[in-house]
Amino acid sequence: MSNFYDSIFKSAVDAIIVINNMGIIEAFSPSAEKLFGYAENIVVGKNISILMPKKIAMEHDGYLENYRKTSNAKIIGIGREVVGKKSNGQEFNMHLSVGKAEDESGNLKYIGICHDMTPYYSVKNDLNETMENYDNLSNYEGLYIASIDKNGLVIKSNVLFSESGFFDSNKFVMDFFENYKFEHIIQKTLQDGFYSISKSSIEIDEKNM
Questions:
Q1: Which SMART domains does this one have (predicted)?
Q2: What pLDDT digit, counting tens, does each position of 23-41 carry?
Q3: Which of 4, 78, 112, 151 is the most interior residue, by most CB within 10 Å?
Q4: Does the model's pTM come out above 0.85?
Q5: How many CB atoms lie within 10 A of CB 47?
Q6: Up-side HSE of residue 127: CA atoms within 13 Å toward CB?
Q7: CATH architecture of 3-116
Q8: Measured between alpha carbons, how far is 78 from 172 in angstroms, rounded to an integer?
């Protein structure tokens, strides 16, 4: 490997793994060391299956054997999400792209590029939790919640607000809210993204009208 390509190999953010046609690891980038928790000298010479859960590992050699016999690529040249296994046994989702190349002697090599999907799923789970909490809040029967633009147009609202009759057919807030200082409502909506008011406070004010 030339100095230039060696520098690319060592500085790549995603993990790079090179194996031969028997599935034996021949090169293991620093990012691969970080991702899987193995030092290069530990995994070089071992089967790539060491980085896979047992069930997937049992299938992997079959993929290589199938390609050697038929040239029918089931995983070569295809990017897909798979499950990897770290040195401590922890399994994680990663995106794997596999390519092939020949070395100076014409020997076939497979190059795998692995991208850790853990941060993606962490953000996705946080977002789902946030949306679930928002849905729980927005459907709480004691709160009228709405997002209103500066002209008084209701952009989005929860079920209670939608069924309240507070806005007309064009979704503009009606004069009912004059008692709640409309300018304050707009200011809070622009600041927080929504405005909420409790059902009980409206009922109390209605009695005082």
A1: PAS
A2: 899 999 999 999 999 999 9
A3: 112
A4: no
A5: 16
A6: 6
A7: 2-Layer Sandwich (3.30)
A8: 52
